[in-house]
Amino acid sequence: MKGVLYPAKILILIFLIGCSNNNTSGSRAKAIEEIKKAEKDFAQMASEKGIAESFWYYADSNAVIRRKNDSLIHGKEQIRHFYLDSFYLTARVVWSPDFADVSEDGTLGYTYGKYTWSIPDSNGKISEFKGIFHTVWKKQNDGSWKYVWD
Questions:
Q1: What is the number of structural domains in the chain?
Q2: What are the pLDDT digits (tens) for 19-73?
Q3: Phi and psi dihedrals of 26, rounded to 5?
């Protein structure tokens, strides 16, 4: 009798683990879509309300960005201050995620894709700079996503 029950217990355990993994993959898929949406909303805000405002709004309180000459700018307020420079007040940036993924527990994720900066000179001539971005996202206590690295 024991020999019959033992395999049944194993099958039940395998079934429960399988159900758990399916739920996890559904949660991960949902988190990936949330991150993609956050990235797109971030880019839209940059277009509508300005670069400084969007980079401040979507930054985690401990966010870090790497910019000119590998300089690191730490924290929301310093990031806003960086982008309030007159150089960025006339610039425009557009980007879109090509890929997103999230950790198994759904609390950290990342995106990457292409960006284009458009910067007018003093005569109004526009220079464009293109590249690839990589952003690391952290789920906040309120369920929103903020970047911790850009």
A1: 1
A2: 444 456 789 999 999 999 999 999 999 999 999 999 999 999 999 999 888 899 9
A3: -65, -40
Residue 138: inside a domain, yes or no? yes
Q: Which domain holds residue 41?
A: 30-149
pTM above threshold 0.85? no
Please state, in angstroms and as integers, the Cα–Cα distance from residue 80 to each residue in 55, 89, 94, 150, following that order. Answer: 7, 11, 18, 13
What CATH number did the domain enclosing 39 receive?
3.10.450.50
Q: CA dist 18 to 5, 12, 15, 23, 31, Å?
A: 20, 10, 5, 9, 20
Q: Evaluate whether 126 touches 145 at the Cβ level (below 8 Å).
A: no
Distance of alpha carbon 64 from alpha carbon 57, whole angstroms? 13
Report which residue type is found at 43.
A
